[in-house]
């Protein structure tokens, strides 16, 4: 228990990585948490509801089930996302639509279903998981970066639209965070350990960001100490964007 006592939270992509770390942290600090994910298997005391953020019917049903279970909604962590590699020449339209549908429209769908409930909360907040890719100009990440640039713009626009309703909207920009996502990428390398060491060496801090460090930033932005903070993005990137 703690600073999230009584808070009712939904975390998308909450079955793995940053989302799971955030769900656990919110729960430890007193919140009741429902994870919306393709994978609905989560440990107690978290609850899991299956949802595909690329399917509006699935999102509506899952948010309704989560709100029913929680008795309302105070915090939405819009975190589900997928990767994409390559330059603009490497992916055809169908792949652009598929990744935008999850990373951008997915967040829109969940927010649209959640907003009517957030309006009834005394301390409503949405935190979107963006990325340093939104502004960094990373090579071989044109599609992924474009989706995260859209998430950054969406965050600021939603903050303006919902300010008067008392709903804060912020995002976190993780650098390379050591989650199952990164492990999946590393497992494709000839020497995963050497690849991980090389990745760490490219970070200003010499190590990857942890999922817990991103979760702590999400909890800050979602929580009672961030009442004066909306429309802002918080980098958790080992100094990558600031140095
Ligand atoms: P992860 O793959 O470990 O977890 C992502 C979760 O999202 C999984 O549980 C997956 O089942 C779920 N998911 C994927 N597609 C979904 C869909 N259509 N509907 C519902 N759930 C879906 O990844 P992670 O590293 O924890 O990434 C979480 C977020 O953080 C993503 O938005 C990602 O873009 C962002 N991010 C990650 C990093 C990093 O280095 N790991 C860096 C910057 C931003």
UniProtKB/TrEMBL annotation:
<feature type="domain" description="Ketoreductase">
    <location>
        <begin position="7"/>
        <end position="184"/>
    </location>
</feature>
<comment type="similarity">
    <text>Belongs to the short-chain dehydrogenases/reductases (SDR) family.</text>
</comment>
<protein>
    <submittedName>
        <fullName>SDR family NAD(P)-dependent oxidoreductase</fullName>
        <ecNumber>1.1.1.-</ecNumber>
    </submittedName>
</protein>
<dbReference type="GO" id="GO:0016491">
    <property type="term" value="F:oxidoreductase activity"/>
</dbReference>
<keyword id="KW-0560">Oxidoreductase</keyword>
<dbReference type="InterPro" id="IPR057326">
    <property type="entry name" value="KR_dom"/>
</dbReference>
<dbReference type="InterPro" id="IPR020904">
    <property type="entry name" value="Sc_DH/Rdtase_CS"/>
</dbReference>
<dbReference type="InterPro" id="IPR051122">
    <property type="entry name" value="SDR_DHRS6-like"/>
</dbReference>
<dbReference type="InterPro" id="IPR002347">
    <property type="entry name" value="SDR_fam"/>
</dbReference>
<dbReference type="InterPro" id="IPR036291">
    <property type="entry name" value="NAD(P)-bd_dom_sf"/>
</dbReference>
<dbReference type="Pfam" id="PF13561">
    <property type="entry name" value="adh_short_C2"/>
</dbReference>
């Amino acid at each position: 228990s703690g600073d999230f006592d009584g808070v009712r939270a939904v975390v998308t992509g909450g079955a793995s990585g940053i989302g799971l770390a955030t769900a656990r942290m919110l729960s430890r600090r007193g919140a009741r948490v429902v994870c919306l994910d393709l994978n609905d298997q989560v440990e107690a005391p978290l609850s899991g509801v299956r949802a595909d953020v690329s399917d509006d019917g699935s999102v509506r049903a899952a948010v309704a089930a989560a709100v029913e279970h929680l008795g309302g909604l105070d915090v939405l962590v819009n975190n589900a996302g997928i990767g994409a590699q390559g330059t603009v020449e490497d992916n055809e339209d169908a792949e652009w639509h598929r990744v935008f549908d999850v990373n951008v429209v997915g967040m829109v769908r969940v927010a649209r279903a959640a907003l009517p409930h957030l309006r009834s909360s005394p301390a409503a907040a949405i935190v979107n998981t963006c990325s340093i890719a939104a502004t960094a100009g990373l090579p071989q990440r044109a599609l992924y970066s474009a989706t995260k640039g859209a998430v950054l713009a969406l965050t600021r626009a939603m903050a303006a639209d919902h300010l008067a309703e008392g709903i804060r909207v912020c995002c976190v920009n993780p650098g390379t965070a050591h989650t199952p996502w990164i492990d999946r990428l590393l497992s494709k390398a000839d020497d995963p350990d050497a690849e991980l060491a090389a990745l760490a060496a490219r970070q200003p801090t010499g190590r990857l960001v942890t999922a817990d460090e991103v979760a702590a930033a999400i909890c800050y932005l979602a929580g009672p100490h961030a009442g004066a903070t909306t429309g802002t993005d918080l980098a958790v990137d080992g100094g990558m964007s600031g140095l």
